[in-house]
Specification:
- The complex is a heterotrimer of chains A (381), B (235) and C (207).
- Chain A is an alpha/beta fold and 381 residues long.
- Chain A folds into 2 domains: 96 residues, Immunoglobulins (Immunoglobulin-like), CATH 2.60.40; 181 residues, Rossmann fold.
- Chain A is 47% helix and 22% strand.
- The model of chain A has no long low-confidence stretch (mean pLDDT 90).
- Chain B has a domain of 106 residues.
- Chain B is built from 7 helices and no strands.
- Chain C starts with a helix and ends in a 12-residue tail after the last helix.
- Chain C has 6 helices and no strands.
- The chains are: A alpha/beta (381), B mainly alpha (235), C mainly alpha (207).
- Chains in contact: A-B, A-C, B-C.
- At the A-C interface, α2, α4, α5, β10 and α6 of A face α1, α2, α4 and α6 of C.
Chain lengths: 381, 235, 207
């Protein structure tokens, strides 16, 4: 029995080889390769078409591909035979649509031959981005860790946070402005609210405003984006109330200076040379205007406390400012200044995730020394 | 044409006068700049959002009886209108709704993508290079020992130095570990060295680009406006 | 109503934000959401313009010595707005051409000139930074000068070019990458805090 089966297998394999060889010999005149498949990582409203002409351009100068969606003719794609891969996304406008593609070849006389190949595919929606699952799992771990540490912080467990020079300087800087009787300027970056750096800066605005209110120092917050303006107005108002100095609060403290990058810089530079602030905070997202603001603040003799997560602007702040919060220090600031246990718990969780990332990186590096990349692919997909 | 070019040149000079000191010319240019940009933005928001994203789609939705679409557009518009509650002292807090919707959405939106692009992709780039070759590579070190030269040394040490730099910089920014911790103490000086080398190099790299911006402005004045002026006056 | 509902909204829309990033099937919905955000945000401009107006009106009311310039802002703003809006409804008209010219010969040169000022600001910043006498500032100085020379190097100075390339390839990449990873963690942590309602300063803070 086994023998018969074995023989049958041998015959089958050799037949298929023979067929393949025959096919190789008799290459069809209008040869081509058509591949039709559902678009990956989409919501099911298209399929991908890949087409490779195999005949020489002399034999077949041009191909035509007729497209049907659910049996209804859509259009014809004309492909000039450049013997190169042709890629096209067929829109279906709805999920579960069957796309049929029929390839016709035009010979040297221009006669339409075929169809030489027909393929079908159905457009389907995917439920997750295959390349983002790793990031999603890491994020969920992060959220879980934050929950655990917040629970601990709520129970009163002490969380240590090391000194951050730029933040320690805030108190002195505000005090200095008070002594000199000159205003404090706070610039929450020049980006919009979508930028998490802007939100991080607004989180620092609150304790700064509270301090300024307590010291009765004049305060000015020029802003570039209208949405940021509304948020900053609320924060400053509440900070003055919390400091018990609602009487000092003035709606005009937080104002829209302008709306574009350099007109904003022009307006704020003008305000700085005229009002001569003693302290200027430049915290948030910045572009090229970072240095204009920092340098003008320096020329009027202000202490500058800067901070940004824009790695391209950090060199300028480091060179031009008295204190600079580098990258993630900006994000840590709100927890550091408020000393709120919940926020400190998050900071601790952030460190732990960072430790895990470093550990996973080292592990991947070690395995890569032996040419094993599966560890890296597992952690950093 | 000469009129507009002259306006452009005078405004440029007015801005440059700021380097000397704050003066009425600069103030004029600055306030003109702000007015122009705010006016421009109002027109852009009107044409690109109010018309293109609200009025036109609503008209279209009504015309095509796409009521679901219509409801979605109307809800978004109503939420946006809540911002205007700011103009009333009493109902001011209502403007927190559009704010929290915007802030909430963008925060959630940032989580997975930031983890992917800022962290996972960067770490992967520290384990293997763009071509997929490991950055810690014993063979390259062997090559250097076999045939020592500047280029084989560069190949052998660049990868490990890069990996080391990334790790010490990461450790430098641990917040919850005391400064006396041996790991933090070990990483401190090399991390600062890497950071300062990096910041200095980026500074120098951008410096030359910024100088050329000024040359570009001078080019406009002397090579575009001046010939045009001469041509107009002369003939 | 004043605090709980905004926090709930931030949570719900935060979950939506996460969902659209991981579920491709929500692509169409994502486009709707992006339109929503653009529509909602556009109304804030009214508040912005009102704030700017108030700022300059105060100067005029107090007869500030620079009140003339506040008028300049008002007049140009209204002028731009009027010609722009008429131009929108009458394409190809004189108004639209005027709007285009205001953009090309007022806005563009002002923008370019402000940007060009950076040549001076960067020089003065470099001068000050390079005067500092700590070992860190010296490292910054040396790296900066080497790269500046490397970018214009010729002949026998081509060695600076090689050093520049190495400085950009190894220490700069390492430093920026370390920073970027840390910043990524900061962004994710801050976002999570906002979605979960732990960080609520953006609602004015307080309880």
């Amino acid at each position: 029995m086994k023998k018969i089966l074995f023989l049958a297998l041998v015959v089958l394999v050799s037949l298929s080889f023979a067929a393949a060889v025959k096919a190789e010999e008799e290459r069809p005149l209008y040869g081509c390769e058509l591949n039709l498949y559902d678009t990956p990582n989409d919501d099911g409203i298209s399929v991908e078409l890949e087409f490779m002409p195999l005949s020489s351009p002399d034999e077949v100068p041009q191909y035509g591909i007729d497209l049907y969606v659910d049996g209804v003719f859509m259009n014809t794609l004309t492909v000039v035979n450049a013997q190169a891969l042709f890629i096209y996304t067929v829109p279906t406008d709805k999920r579960g649509a069957e796309v049929r593609a029929e390839v016709f070849a035009y010979d040297a006389e221009g006669t339409r031959q075929g169809p030489v190949q027909v393929e079908k595919a159905i457009s389907t929606a995917q439920w997750y981005y295959s390349d983002r699952i790793g990031a999603f799992i890491w994020s969920m771990l992060f959220i879980g860790l934050i929950m655990i540490l917040i629970g601990k912080a709520k129970k009163g467990q002490d969380i240590f946070i090391r000194r951050i020079a730029g933040l320690e300087a805030i108190d002195d800087a505000v005090g200095r402005a008070t002594e000199m009787g000159r205003p404090v300027f706070y610039i929450p970056g020049t980006s919009i609210i979508d930028d998490i750096a802007t939100l991080a800066s607004l989180n620092i605005l609150r304790p700064v405003a509270q301090q300024v209110a307590t010291y009765e120092t004049p305060f000015s917050v020029p802003i570039k984006d209208p949405v940021v303006l509304t948020v900053a107005q609320d924060i400053v108002k509440e900070a003055y109330m919390a400091a018990g100095r609602a009487d000092l609060h003035d709606e005009g403290m937080v104002y829209l200076a302008s709306v574009g990058q350099f007109d904003y810089a022009a307006a704020v530079n003008g305000a700085m040379v005229r009002e001569k602030p003693a302290t200027v905070f430049l915290l948030g997202m910045f572009w090229a205007e970072s240095l204009m603001l920092a340098e003008t603040a320096n020329t009027v003799g202000a202490i500058q406390i800067a901070g940004t997560d824009a790695t391209s602007q950090l060199p300028f702040f480091i060179a031009a400012c008295d204190y600079t919060l580098i990258g993630e220090e900006l994000y840590a600031a709100s927890a550091y200044m408020s000393r709120e246990p919940l926020l400190l718990g998050t900071l601790k969780a952030q460190d732990m995730i960072k430790g895990a990332v470093i550990f996973a990186m080292l592990l991947s590096l070690v395995f890569m020394l032996f040419g094993i990349d599966s560890v890296m692919n597992f952690f950093f997909q | 044409m000469l009129f507009w070019y002259t306006v452009a040149v005078l405004l440029s000079l007015a801005i440059f006068s700021f380097l000397w000191k704050d003066n009425p010319l600069y103030k004029f240019a600055e306030h003109l700049f702000v007015g122009t940009m705010v006016g421009y933005t109002i027109v852009m928001v009107f044409s690109q959002i109010i018309m293109r994203k609200i009025v036109d789609p609503i008209t279209l939705a009504v015309h095509n009886h796409q009521y679901l679409n219509l409801i979605s557009l109307i809800i978004a518009t109503l939420i946006g209108l809540l911002y205007l509650s700011r103009f009333s002292q009493k109902a001011q807090w209502v403007s927190r709704y559009p704010i929290s919707i915007t802030v909430g959405f963008w925060s959630g939106y940032a989580i997975v993508t930031s983890f992917k692009t800022n962290i996972l992709t960067q770490v992967r780039g520290t384990v293997v290079d763009d071509m997929g070759a490991p950055l810690l590579n014993g063979e390259l070190l062997g090559d250097f020992i076999k045939s020592p030269s500047w280029s084989s040394l560069d190949l052998a040490v660049s990868g490990p130095l890069l990996v080391f730099g990334v790790i010490v910089v990461l450790i430098y920014f641990f917040f919850s570990i005391k400064n006396e911790n041996p790991m933090v103490r070990f990483a401190n000086k090399p991390a600062l060295l890497y950071l300062m080398l990096g910041f200095g190099a980026s500074f120098g790299y951008t410096f030359m680009g910024r100088i050329s911006l000024f040359i570009g402005r001078m080019n406009f004045i002397f090579n575009e406006w001046w010939p045009l002026l001469k041509q107009t006056i002369g003939g | 109503m004043k605090r709980t509902l905004p926090l709930a909204l931030a949570f719900i829309f935060g979950l939506i934000g996460i969902a659209v990033q991981i579920v491709p099937a929500l692509k169409g919905f994502l486009n709707t959401m992006l339109d929503w955000m653009a529509i909602i945000g556009s109304f804030a401009l009214a508040l912005g313009v009102s704030s700017l107006t108030r700022h300059h009106m105060t100067k005029i009311r107090r007869k500030h010595k620079d009140m003339f310039f506040s008028y300049v802002t008002f007049v140009t703003m209204l002028f731009m707005m009027i010609i722009g809006l008429i131009g929108y409804f009458q394409p190809e008209s004189l108004y639209q051409r005027l709007f285009g010219n205001m953009y090309n010969y007022v806005r563009v040169p002002l923008d370019a000139s402000m940007f060009a000022l950076l040549a001076f600001f960067i020089t003065s910043a470099a001068y000050r930074a390079f005067r500092a006498r700590t070992w860190l500032a010296t490292v910054l100085l040396v790296a900066g000068v080497v790269v500046m020379m490397g970018r214009v190097a010729f002949g026998p100075f081509m060695i600076f070019n090689d050093i520049t390339a190495w400085l950009m390839k190894v220490p700069t990449t390492a430093a920026m990458r370390g920073l970027t990873i840390g910043i990524g963690l900061g962004i994710v942590a801050t976002s999570i805090k906002i979605v979960l309602g732990i960080e609520r300063s953006y609602l004015g803070g307080g309880e």
